[in-house]
Amino acid sequence: MLYWSGLKSGGFSLFSEVICRHEAFLNYLARVHHNVPSSIHLFSDLSTEVHHAISRRELHDNTSIALRSLIEIIAAEPPHGNKTMMSETDFDSLLALSYHFSHLGLTGDSAYYNLIVSAPNDGKESDNSDSETDWNRVETFFKEKYREGIEAKFEEFNEIPSSEKQERRVTEADFKQEWQQAFKAEFGLSLTEILRFFACVIDLGFELETSSPHLPLSEFKARIQSTLKWSDADINQAIKQFSLVPRPKYEIAPDGYDTDKDIFPWVYNRRISYIVRPLIIGPEPKDDPLIFWGPRHMDEAMHLLMRNVFSGRYLREDNTSPEMKVFISKMQNDSARSFEKKVKKWFEKNTSWKIDHAVFISPEGKLHSDVNIGDIDVLAIDVSSKKIYSIECKQFNFARNPREIAREIRKILGNDGDHSSLMMKHLKRDAWLKSHVEDVQVVYGLPPGDYSIHSLFVVSEELPTAYLRETPLEIIPISRLRREGQLVLKTGNKS
Known about the structure:
There is one protein chain. The protein is elongated, with a radius of gyration of 26 Å. The longest helix has 32 residues, at 11-42. Among the domains are: 1-119 and 131-157, no CATH class; 339-491, 3-Layer(aba) Sandwich (Trna Endonuclease, Chain: A, domain 1). Helices cover 54% and strands 10% of the residues. It is an alpha/beta fold. The protein has a 6-stranded mixed sheet, with helices on both faces. A 4-stranded mixed sheet has the order 1-4-3-2.
């Protein structure tokens, strides 16, 4: 499909080279990210590091998606033979084709979901002011997103880990039984078994002392069995669950999968992707094919799987087991309550205001209404300036591509005439408060005065929606609330 027929004879060397280069890239990224906090401590500053991160963003993102996409294509339609290692020119051409394939898909989705008017004009003067505004907003979002991430890394850097911690084997007792059962229902392996499998494969990769580890499948299984003492059935289940295998055509999904949702690299959370299936089973030898992997990528895949499941990103509609759906729903509810408490605690610690939370506006609520219009997550009253803040707290996983951004926008703002969106629900509470200010004064024993209502969202992280769409109420990430304090309540999110 994407790579030249002449290179399909690359065989073993092509598998090894592309995995080797991806491992080198991951090593480079890790060093870049780990050096940022120490650079700020020693000789740089936050603004400079944000500028550096933004200047490298496109190169890093494009290289990452191009490498992973190329690996997925080669894994689906693997080359044969033992051709010697390809030239730098040939490899760069493959990588460029892979990048353009993904880039065109992303651009097409951006247009389809009406997110950006048109692509930037490569530095040339443009007569499309809407396009320039769209891309300026995108760049502003990335700037703030990187600032948020670097601040978080800087805070973690200040926490010195204990030197007394000892490595030990993960056991079934380390996790709740409901967690183990959810993973078992979804993957055929418990959470503990998955973590031990990944750790074993990572260790094996480094033991082989090669940049692109590979073994005959039979030997790979024997090495896993020797370490984990698993049955053949459990080893086969782990390999099946986390491996890419050859298929007739890259662009045609296997039975039970969807090309649009599971194959194309510009779609995230796919069931057939290198980040989800970090092992690659080659086509040769037919009786005992080689299995390839990269230990750094295995580590990244393991951490991503854990983050996706525990954050709720993993949820895949009809393809998720009932047990996993229940588990993820509980995790999301616990996370939402935890975030509300975090916002409440910030206002209690950093202001002298009256603070309340989970304030229901309903027939039986603290604020009486004939109709139940929900609760105010955090109600903050600044008596001195006579301002009442109605704050909706939302834990989000920020959208990472056009499809996710479109879903995020629908969830927050809804479609025309949609009264079930998060924004519309909070606007109803805002309208009620503005028409019942005296009721609030009575309930909270406020001194007389002309109080004003200010409704807003505080969210767990920077969101594209806040930059790509005009919103009736401000959407403020908690990172900015911590950084700017009460000032952000006056200036909003787009100052």
